[in-house]
Amino acid sequence: TSVEKIKADGFVTMSTNAEFEPFEYKDADNIVGIDIDISNKIAEKLGVKLKINDVAFDSLVAELSTGKTNFVAAGMTADEDRKKNVDFSDTYFDASQSIIVLKGSPIKTRIDLNGKKVGVQQGTTGDSYCTNEKGTSDIKVASTERYNKGVDAISDLLNGKIDAVVIDDFPAKKFVEKNPDKLVKLDEALTVEKYAIAVPKGDKEMLKVVNEVLADLKSSGELDKIIDKYKAA
Ligand code: GLN
Q: Pocket of ligand 1, candidates 55, 166, 168, 193: which has the most ligand atoms within 8 Å of its Cβ, to mutate?
């Protein structure tokens, strides 16, 4: 079984995209963040080491379905489309998509995105919201520019190549904090999303371990402490 193999190997593999501060990002040579702290607790519970695969966000579901990883912790929204291919744990964070623009931009609400060039992270919920993949958005952007790294979208925004960036609220806050004189995050929340950890479809054993760890972190108050630590960082 998956857990027996993990214990025999002495390590558990987690896949992520370490471009999403404060959930996963690089600090010198280390990958750190909220999801890394949670993943370390999962490894601890299994009594093994944590191995991290840092890959593009839009290949994370494939990492699970091709058996390259035991779980994905990547600020990933538990959405219906992904549920066809992976199983999600209990949720651990409430999120939404938000809009970042240059200070003084005429874009003040989501409707102002109509006819504009918007930067998104490839394969994310922000991408599908802006491209109106599901036909449920009430906005019609001129075009979406897709990036593998949120930071590249931000630099194109700063260079005037795009009019706005749509990205998850907590990473958006971090980007704005780094450029407080140039960037603003609008107050409007575009979506209601919940983050969960993904495991291979049908891997009940792994799912159970992950849910036990999340339940412990929630009931002990440890999860709030981890989140607060990265809020301040
Ligand atoms: N929460 C978003 C999604 O699941 C973005 C996650 C990310 O970029 N790491 O699509």
A: 168
Alpha carbon distance, N-terminus to C-terminus of the chain: 39
**What topology is assigned to 97-185 in CATH?**
D-Maltodextrin-Binding Protein; domain 2 (3.40.190)
**Does ligand 1 have an atom closer than 6 angstroms to the CB of 125?**
yes
Strand spans (E) along 10-126: 11-16, 25-27, 30-32, 49-54, 71-72, 86-95, 97-102, 117-121
CA–centroid distance, 90 to ligand 1, in Å, is 16
Q: Which of 205, 214, 216 is nearest to 34 (CA)?
A: 214
Q: Is the CB of 153 under 6 A from ligand 1?
A: no
Q: Tell me the CA–centroid distance for residue 74 and ligand 1, in Å.
A: 7
Residue 182 has pLDDT above 90, yes or no: yes
Looking at domain 2-94+194-232, its CATH superfamily turns out to be Periplasmic binding protein-like II (3.40.190.10)
Q: For 30-81, how does the pLDDT look when each residue is reduced to its tens digit (9 = 90+)?
A: 999 999 999 999 999 999 999 999 999 999 999 999 999 999 999 999 999 9
Tokens 């009940």 appear where? 204
Predicted local confidence at residue 6, as pLDDT: 98
Tell me which residue has its CA closest to atom 5 in ligand 1: 124
